[in-house]
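Input sequence (476 aa), recorded before submission:
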Amino acid sequence: MRRLALVAALLLAACTAVPAPDSTSAAPSPSAAAEIANGHFDGARAKAHVSYLADPARGGRMSGSAGYADAAQYVADRFREIGLEPLGDNGTYFQHFPMPNVELAAMPTLAAIAPSARTYKARVDMTETVGGRSGSGRAESTLAVVGGAARAGVQNDFAGVDARGKIALVTGPTQGGSAVEAAYAEGATGVLLVGNTQIRYSYIPRLESATIPVLVVNETVANELIAPSGKTVAAVRDAVRARRSDPTSPPTGFEVPTTLRMEVSLTPVRQIDAMNVVGLLRGADNTSEQAVLVGGHLDAVGTDPDGSVFQGANDNASGPAVVMEVARALAARRATLKRSIVFAAFAGEEEGFFGSEAYIARTATSPGRVESLTAMIDLDVIGCCGDSLFVSNEAPELQRRIRDTASRLGVSSTSSGAGGSDQTSFARRRVPAALIGWTDFILHTYRDTPDVVTVAKLKAAGDVVTDVAAQLASEG
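Predicted structure, token format:
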């Protein structure tokens, strides 16, 4: 799952309550096989899909990687077994497209040099961000604390400190705009942001010609770095809020005599061959060119240079796993479906919805092309955590239908805001679209393994999606 705004991403917390390993057998039982034949969603089979897709052998499924290709072949094989028609290139299930890619060339580094030496650990004490102004670079300097990095008039958080040539620490609260861009404009050679350091944020392969290193540090580390000033991050934030309420309050920026060295090393941006996996369950009414699309992104964030794999079980092996089992369940009900259903596993979501955009640009036939779609259901972080399903609000009528169906099936749900995943591409084209997932989630961490995904969560979500897709496809 990719968040559009950097500030929102920095505030995003991974699920704090990781469920115990799921003891349910991954192999479907005879009764489960009977349910499939009768058109019912099988959570155990979906869990088996997650286990394959999120196995370390897939290497974190970064778009364009060998591990992603293995996962895509697995999805295509399941589509073939189910009997879906291939909707990709040249009679295949694969829809190829070029997309930009950038990767980490070495683990990021952050070290305090003075007044005392300390080396900080990636994915524990700090983590990098990549995109726009945030890219490759090395900085060594003292620290300039710049609050929320606002620059406008009396709200200037840089008042009181000269950030030129220094490493800027952005404590927050931010106030719109890019804190990194503001710090760069003030001459900072590197930026530290305060946030979640256990995750690897999505790499956005659109970089400015001049970049600086940007790391996220947790609040404990930030407090340690500014300790010589006698202040804390909480106190700085309070001071920033006070000055925004009363411009006569003292300036909040200040320098700390802590000397740091930081570095982020990236590969050059290059074009890769990415691919979606797309299959069609044709409706019984052969005259209808309309279709419903059920999809989820297959890619994850790959492997760190030290060999640590982001297995991406919940984010988002769970989405394509549910897609495959909804397809299997509804294939048994084809005679009741007037409209067709397109099932898709997208690449490139983490980098900025490249796969869903490519689907829209490259799918030219109906049913399937964007003009033929009556609804799009996007599945992301749908295997773990939380007591309720969230349903995004881009299409109120579709959201209401999903939530009413969940209620009827005894599944709690709640409304969420727009954006965050591939449904965005379709909503932009005025296709009624909704994102579904669990309200608490784990993503982009080494802990996102198949053990956190449960049969019960997959089953509950899968039942809702199967029912809604059947409703939408059964209407004339």
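Checked by second reader. Residues 455-474 form the longest helix (20 residues).
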